[in-house]
Design a protein that fits this description.
Length: about 400
């Protein structure tokens, strides 16, 4: 099962994307809809609200009078906290029930779309293997809200009260631009569903990697942004088991050509700790590859070059996750090598020349090894000279 987070500012078009995903087969978990469901007549939620705020929050037919409730619940912080203490746990419980019903069928490439307007504000984005953000210019959003009957001042106030577009972009794995006609957004959403969402769901279920990358590309400023999102996702999944998580390798070196693959190192206290991380990493989109168990040893003890290796299931953002033990030479060298490349333009050019040759061979990794045998010692000599420490 794949869980994706869907968000966007008011008037951006998130509801349109949610409807498309539903038509395509996604199970939509909409917090606003659930919040209404859990306080319908006859529910535990409505009964508890009446007990907390009085019978006068009901309409004559027994349904919730929302303006009457708002007048009482939002008059002070204590009343608001009382409302949230009743509704939020019920929404969370219902959300988990829906997700559990989907998870009960692991043989399917099921997708749960969690429609969360305040995804930035709640800090929940890193819990999803994929976050989709619908965006549109502020003036376009204001015009849409006015067309729906909202006062302009109210529309602008609501937009200002939400997360900024920059904050949403920072959590977005996918940005869907809705500055044009609605039909364009519908087509973008369908294309995303069939070419990225469903393949990701399949890869997570089957524990497979996304597409392989073979060619070098010019440096992209987006690599640092992508790495930051991946690191937050991994940190949340690993918790305190991860001692540190670092962006390593060529994509971590500004202005250096590289394969469009983000390499991340997770440092742990032992390989036993690394094995504990299989399930949580898979759930956020990074299944383990059992065929990769060690790095090429550059010291006399190959046992100190063992590791665990995970890959990104997302076909739209290839990534490698190397889990290494703190203080082991492979863990230290991964950090040193990145720092060495950043500090030495001549080394970068030399390494890039080697990579350009290696990318034309059948085994890219093996083709680079002769260069690395020498580079390992040169890098440590540089570290000793400069006083570098991990």
């Amino acid at each position: 099962m794949l869980r994706i987070g869907l968000t966007g500012g008011i008037g951006a078009g998130k509801s349109t994307v949610s409807a498309v995903f539903s038509e395509c087969g996604g199970v939509i978990v909409d917090g606003d809809v659930i919040a209404r469901e859990v306080v319908e007549p006859g529910t535990e939620g409505l009964q508890r609200l009446v007990e907390a705020f009085g019978e006068d929050i009901l309409l004559p037919d027994g349904a919730l009078n929302r303006p009457a409730l708002a007048a009482k619940a939002f008059r002070d912080d204590d009343s608001r906290a009382r409302l949230n203490g009743i509704v939020h746990p019920l929404v969370g419980k219902r959300r988990e029930e829906i997700i559990a019903s989907v998870r009960a069928h692991p043989e399917k490439d099921s997708v749960v779309v969690e429609d969360i307007p305040l995804l930035v504000e709640t800090g929940m984005a890193p819990t999803f293997p994929l976050v989709v953000v619908v965006t549109a210019p502020a003036e376009t959003r204001v015009a849409r809200l006015i067309k729906r009957g909202m006062d302009e001042a109210d529309a602008r106030a609501r937009i200002a009260a939400q997360a900024t577009e920059e904050e949403r972009r920072a959590i977005a794995d996918v940005l869907l631009d809705n500055s044009g006609p609605q039909g364009e957004l519908v087509e973008k959403a369908r294309d995303l569903w069939y070419h990225r969402v469903l393949p990701l769901a399949h890869n997570i279920r089957t524990r497979e990697c996304g597409k392989a990358i073979h060619e070098l590309t010019p440096y992209k400023t987006s690599w640092a942004e992508d790495a930051a999102r991946i690191i937050k996702r991994i940190e949340m999944a690993c918790g305190t088991t991860a001692l540190r998580v670092d962006h390593i390798g060529s994509t971590a070196v500004p202005e250096m050509d590289a394969k469009d693959v983000i390499d991340v190192q997770v440092t742990v206290a032992s390989l036993d700790d690394a094995d504990v991380l299989v399930k949580p990493l898979t759930q956020v989109g990074f299944p383990r590859r059992e065929d990769v168990t060690a790095d090429t040893a550059h010291t006399e003890d190959p046992g100190m070059w063992r590791k665990r290796f995970h890959c990104a299931a997302d076909p739209g953002r290839p990534a490698n996750v190397h889990i290494r033990v703190e203080g082991w030479p492979n863990q230290q060298f991964a950090l040193l090598f990145t720092a060495w490349l950043r500090a030495n333009p001549g080394v970068r050019e030399d390494y890039l020349h080697t990579k350009r040759h290696a990318v034309t061979t059948a085994d890219y990794v093996q083709a680079k090894e002769p260069w690395f045998l020498d580079a390992y010692h040169r890098a440590w000599q540089w570290a000793d000279t400069t006083g570098w420490r991990a």
